[in-house]
User: Which sequence fits this backbone?
């Protein structure tokens, strides 16, 4: 079993998507791969969005500036994962900064390829859409959990994170 097939299986299983991994496997295979060192900045909060990434190896920190301008870590994302897709869906600027913390490999999905995959009626397009929706649902669930925790324990550190996560989204 190829490493790409194993990545596709893990990514689908992580998000609970019941699709044959071979369909998703064809998607990253068609995309350019980038090898990134620790410290590489994939995107910066409030920058325009042009790409998303399929993280196939490595780890990325996701951070956002709080009301005082201090960068707060929101998440530490390990491969396999999707990154930067929310900005492509909404067309808004980046809502967070993503920095590689463990050397990584990513497959770059340009805006044009993203739109083509959304419109693709093949099994590959279906697998991509289902994965995208599942990933976004997972992010929404994690946000709801963080807000619930912040409400139940206002003295906890996550209260600042919850406030900073929501602050400035309309800017």
Assistant:
């Amino acid at each position: 079993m190829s490493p790409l097939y194993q990545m596709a299986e893990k990514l689908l299983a992580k998000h609970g998507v019941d699709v044959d991994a071979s369909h998703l496997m064809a998607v990253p295979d068609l995309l350019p791969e980038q090898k990134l060192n620790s410290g590489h900045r994939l995107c910066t909060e409030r920058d325009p969005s042009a790409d998303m990434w399929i993280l196939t190896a490595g780890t990325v920190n996701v951070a956002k500036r709080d009301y005082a301008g201090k960068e707060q870590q929101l998440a530490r994302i390990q491969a396999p994962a999707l990154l930067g897709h929310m900005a492509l869906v909404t067309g808004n600027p980046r809502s967070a900064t993503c920095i590689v913390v463990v050397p990584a490999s990513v497959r770059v999905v340009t805006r044009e390829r993203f739109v083509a995959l959304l419109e693709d009626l093949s099994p590959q397009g279906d697998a991509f859409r289902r994965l995208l929706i599942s990933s976004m649902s997972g992010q929404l669930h994690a946000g709801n959990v963080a807000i619930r925790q912040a409400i139940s324990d206002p003295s906890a550190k996550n209260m600042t994170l919850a406030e900073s996560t929501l602050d400035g989204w309309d800017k």
